Amino acid sequence: MHVPDGFFDVPTSMATGVVAAAGVSVALRRARHELDDRTAPMAGLVATFVFAGQMMNFPVGAGTSGHLLGGALAAVLAGPWTAVLAITVVLSVQALLMADGGITALGTNVTLMALVGVAVGWLVFKAVRAVLPKRLALVAPAAALGALVSVPAAAAVFTLLFSVGGTAPIDTGTVLVAMLGWHTVIGIGEAVITGLVVAGVVAVRPDLCYGARPVLRQRPLEVRAGTPS
Amino acid sequence: MRFRPTTRTFLVVGLLAALLVAGVASFYASSHPDGLNAVAQTTGFVDHSKPSATSHGPFAGYQTEGIGDDRLSRGVAGIAGALLVLVVGGGLFRLLRRRSPSDDPGEA
Q: For each of chain B's 108 residues, which pLDDT tens digit applies?
């Protein structure tokens, strides 16, 4: 969903640039509480993995593809504020090095994928985690649901921005239906990838998954027979 | 007892997986337009896109300048991009981290 240069007028691009800068500056302060000697390298790996995942376009039918956005995945693995920074780094490298996503559209892309994608993915994950039993096996399904909702949410915000500051006079309803239709299908792919990756991490090192820690804390201590005192 | 790799092993395996996806598997990714581009084509605003100022860079379009072979060209670009994200992201997170010993109850 990388927006190229030219889709949005200058005021809208500048406004989303201000929103993106504000979001990133808050994240720079808040991410400190999510990062320590052990989680900082994990967060770097998560950013790298999201970059790789975004190169893997999967077909969603009728000559159309989709790819991982990674907001929910990064938030569940590394924490939401760290995820905002991770996705912003990915989008910046893509815009500057790969010409993927416009330079003047970088603020728009950060707003859509790093702010909306992470916020919706994380909040849905948290809500689902709160209502499900506190079991490690349910962390990945909760992450998948967050991922599923995050993609059409970002598509809806794109449409809202396009209705305000799009350079082409296209009927908003038409754009909304098309955007939500495709991005609901892409959201299913996002959910599958996010669920599988989170399940893999939780299976081997649940302590490295930010979103699994409240569940780990609640797990009663194991009492093993025959352990010398 | 279940398999529990050290943090170092976990990170190395994770990084190799990411580099394999970016450097090798991505060649087999779908080349169809993504959701946004497909919508831009069908609803008619795709012509409003302008080429990026960086579209002549050495890795523009996930292709490496000067490498003719498609597979190698995309692989090198993918690995270069992934490593740059690792250096910039990893460096940023290292800079931001709390230096005091972790009081995280999840600590093993």
A: 567 899 999 999 999 999 999 999 999 999 999 999 999 999 999 999 999 999 999 999 999 999 999 999 999 999 999 999 999 999 999 999 987 655 454 444
Q: What CATH number did the domain enclosing A64 receive?
A: 1.10.1760.20
pTM confidence score? 0.93
ipTM value of the model? Answer: 0.93
Where do we find the tokens 């072979």? B69
Question: Does residue B13 sit at the A interface (CB-CB below 8 Å)?
Answer: no
d(CA B91, CA B89): 5
Give how many domains chain B has, as a whole number.
1
Q: Residues near B55 by Cβ (< 8 Å), separated by ≥ 6?
A: A99, B61
CB contact under 8 A, A213 and B105: yes
Q: Is A175 domain-assigned? A: yes
Domain that holds residue B77: 57-98
Which residues in chain B touch residue A97, judged by CB atoms under 8 angstroms apart? 54, 57, 59-60, 80-81, 84
